[in-house]
Design a protein that fits this description.
The structure holds 2 protein chains of 2 kinds. Chain A contains 15 helices and 2 strands. By secondary structure, chain A is mainly alpha-helical. Chain A folds into 2 domains: 15-175, no CATH class; 177-341, no CATH class. Chain A has a two-stranded antiparallel sheet with strand order 1-2. Chain A is globular. The model of chain A has no long low-confidence stretch (mean pLDDT 90). Helices cover 36% and strands 16% of the residues of chain B. Chain B is built from 14 helices and 18 strands. Chain B has helices at 128-137, 150-153, 178-185, 187-201, 215-228, 247-255, 275-287, 317-323, 381-385, 392-400, 404-409, 420-424, 431-486, 496-527; strands at 3-6, 29-31, 37-41, 51-52, 59-60, 65-68, 77-78, 83-92, 100-108, 164-169, 206-211, 233-238, 270-274, 293-299, 307-312, 335-336, 343-344, 358-360. In chain B, the strands form 4 sheets. Chain B has a 6-stranded mixed beta sheet. A 5-stranded parallel beta sheet of chain B has the order 1-12-11-10-13, with helices on both faces. Chain B has a 4-stranded antiparallel beta sheet with strand order 3-9-8-5, with no helix packed on it. Chain B starts with a strand and ends in a 12-residue tail after the last helix. Classes of the chains: A mainly alpha, B alpha/beta. The interface between A and B is large, with 42 and 67 residues.
Chain lengths: 341, 539
Amino acid sequence: MKLSIASAPFIRPTMQVSWVMRQVLLALVPAILINTLFFGPGVILNILLACLVAVSCEAIALKLRDRPIVATLNDSSALLAGVLLGLAMPPLSPWWLTALGAAFALIVAKHLYGGLGYNPFNPAMAGYAALLTSFPSLMKQWPTPGAELPGVGDTLHHFIFGRLMDNRLIDLISSATVLDHTKSQLALHYTWSELSGETLYGMLGGAGWQWVALAYLAGGLYLLAVRIIDWRIPTTVLAALATLALFFHLVDSDHYPGPIFHLFSGAAMIGAFFIATDPVSAATTPKGRLIYGASIGILIYLIRTFGGYPDGVAFAVLILNAAVPVIDRHTQPRVYGHDRN
Amino acid sequence: MSIIEQVHQRFRGGLALPKHKELTRGKPILEAPIPPELIIPLRQHVGESAAVTVHVGQYVRRGEQIGRATDFLSAAVHASSSGRIIAIEDRVTPHPSGRKEPCVVIATDGEDASQGLPPWPNFHSLEHSTLRNRLRQCGVVGLGGAAFPTAAKLTYSPRRSIHTLILNAVECEPYLTCDESLLLERPQEILNGLEIMRHILQVPTAVIAIGENMSASLASLKEAIDAFSSQHVRIVVVPSLYPAGSEHQLVQMITGQEVPSGGLPSDLGVVTQNVATAAAVYRAVILGEPLTSRVVTITGQGITQPHNLRVRIGTPIQYLLDFCGGAVGSNHLVIMGGPMMGFALPNVASPVVKATNCLLMPGADELPGRGAAQPCIRCGFCVDACPVGLLPQQLYWHARANDLEAVQEHHLFDCIECGCCATVCPSQIPLVQYYRQAKREVAVHEQRREQATLARERYEHRLTRLGQQADTNLSQLTRLAASALDSPGDDFDFSADELQTAEITVKQAAIQAALDRVQAKKQATLSSPANDGNDGESS
């Protein structure tokens, strides 16, 4: 009898990388729908293009690096990076902007560092940050929620040619995001109570934005329920952000919006549940994850409030990505049979 | 009277695995027939091999010693049926590498004539050392899988008093029901064995640890304890979580203390024994029967009739599989031990040994095995699963980079190889394999370093010796010179300068002579490859 040889343990893992990635994609579906509802068909267009470029770049990189192409693409991680970047992009972007971001994410941030598992920085955020620093004005044009949505024709025209049909100005249908608006208005000494009555603001956060945030929250809770993400990172990101916001709001409620506004505006929710929790670039020790998450939350608040950008999720995550090796090293759990120190 | 308690403390991590015990659960223990040939390895335990005490052609009975224990960490081996010894030679043993080891091969005669030792029903009046010797003579070793000689485990130093004896009835590996079936059928034997061990260790109470999913065994035990009217046994129900039956985790749950890293439970005053071992202790002492058989679970969807069998040590595994109706389909994976910590047998001609608790033949889709490993995505599932508190993904990273210092900083040697990390790894990385390999590399590295230190010390000694030799020569010369000076009438006369020159010359000559000897030695070694170059500092 010919015997086969394998090594213990013989029980096959129930969760596999591709399954994990697809669950995350599934958890993003509500947010994709809500985003499209409030910001128009450009959202879908961005996601499709970012995915196409991401997957193509991954395939090319794998080919050049002489790695298995189909098996690796099958892990769906490039697809996920594409979707996340697509969601982060302003819905009215010229095609080359999104394509450039996706290419940067996959080639520079992911494959130049060795591909899945070896990239110190979150690829989608690295791509986003590269665009944000290189093309700041293009990255600010968001359709105004509640105002007239850009139609399919306008979106496609802008996507391809970088302008609306009939040479209309893009300012007709877009404006600064609610975080951007808040920041600039507060700097002009308007008070928070004056601002929050405007149509840009909803009950929780920015109008429209708050529903998107809720959709990310729902997806995040699903990921927690199926135990794909650990509670530590999202909880500490949101708790640190909310605590700082609450503190400043209590000290001076005219100049500092409260915690609810911060949680439900901008990229706080997608950041907490989908970006900071990216396993490859996040801290892995239990204690390290608390420190990592809390630091991201603090940085988001500091950048939003005192920094040069209206939102700070991408930079906060990237900065903490760089700190991960140090955090992990100094937060090793106590091993059985060893003293506490 | 028995008290049923819950655990003192839970261990971290662990997995709630599918148990798959229903294939053999509650099935009676059947006696496996006597095979035509028994292959009995001389080393079936941790420690020194037994020394063979029989010769080819000799007739032996069941229970007759064929190999004697050679030292403290050794155990005797016995013929497990009667017959004639047809060979004493190297045969394939159940080992992951399928290596050959010295075995006594018996052609059985089917008579099963037996020869035992005098029964000692009144063990209470016997000395502890006498009882331990009996266990060593009877070849009793830990039957939970580790095969550590039981007598050695029941030896305590006066410095370290033992206060807790834990009987491990947890059997947390999936599929295994050999201990459970003993608990159901022979609880009296187990309790008697436990009582003997309690007597040897002079421990006031023994704790029986049992899994929370083992209600039938629990009922059987309770009934036996009531009948036994023992005041000295309590039962602790442990959570049905893998690896609850691992020694360190069990000690933690029951005592609330952790075995110090690199130490033994006895450092905390705790000794653990397995239920099957307790039954073997009973047979050895009270019935005078050496360990010649054990219960083996033969299970999996790949075997026609799963069973719990009482098997004679030395029975070829192929023979047992045939007895159970043979393999189903074309799946040919035979795992010795459970699916978490067992190993794939390279050869079914190898025999059942004392450590064989289970033979698992999975069906075609039962244990599909891992696919190709993907890169680690640092998800940390392994960190949550590790019962020891290691960072398996960091260990993997450093093990792969062959960074022997970093793996030790990450506590590689605290890894118990339970397999939890690899079982949850979404990248299907065979993590345990990497850790085993890294452990081996560290061991090899340490060995090399020791050899290097030894060589350096030898070299330094040699230099000192040469120096001493030179000094001796010099003093001889000085003596000579002095005696010359002291003899008036002789024509010798040395000035101080002349004396000094002579001194230097002699010293140089001594050193040169030594160097020449070394050179000669070297050439001799080089020119004759047969010479193993075994230093030669004896000159």
